[in-house]
Amino acid sequence: MAELEALIFDVDGTLADTERDGHRVAFNRAFEEAGLDWQWSVALYGKLLAVTGGKERIRHYLDHYNQDYPRQDDLDGFIAALHASKTQHYTRMLSQGLIPMRSGVKRLLHEARQAGLRLAIATTTTPANVSALLQHSLDPDAESWFEVIAAGDIVAAKKPAPDIYLWAMQRMGLQAGACLALEDSHNGVQSASHAAIDSILVTTNGYTAEDDFSGASLVVDQFGEPDQPFLVRSGEADGHRFVDLGLLRALHGRSDP
Asked: Is 10 a known active-site residue?
């Protein structure tokens, strides 16, 4: 039986519920600053989340929801500048403490560190976003907790492609069988699965609750706390009421042949 050696975390929607009142708001502020009349509503942003990556999301919006907008000669540069502005707005929100970690995240990370598990991040969001979230919402030194932070454009193909997980595992010198992925979305589950990670825990949020999580070991609504139990959406929690290392090791053990 392979030993569980590493936990690999997604960020947006997993470590923190960043999408609706974080990234979406920052995009709208960037659009306003650029003199654009674009406004991404809660409902529209839910549809745009089917596309991973902020620059890719803007392009998808133009191609499918705002086709009448005249295209600049340097569309790539225009999109990149908008996304850079959005990142500045988002990190400013983080520095003001406006986006807290999800329930149970800090407890679980401390427990994993104390047990000697290796930690990594695999996300499509930009490195600046990850750094700001960890520093301001978790701990000033939290970046050092993670052996590898695989983020943004470090790979060309974003989730649901497996590349970001493969990159992280390669840097750690680990095989997929030694890892457990923690995700919140269909694209994330597909990414981890295509990287041959069989142990996948999903914590849903308002945008992803109805996603198809085929391939996940367990789907719950949050990591939870002893006094704030999770709701099991699919899978077996073996009597656990919140996510701890005992549950993660049990999930990992199920994936062994």
From this structure: yes
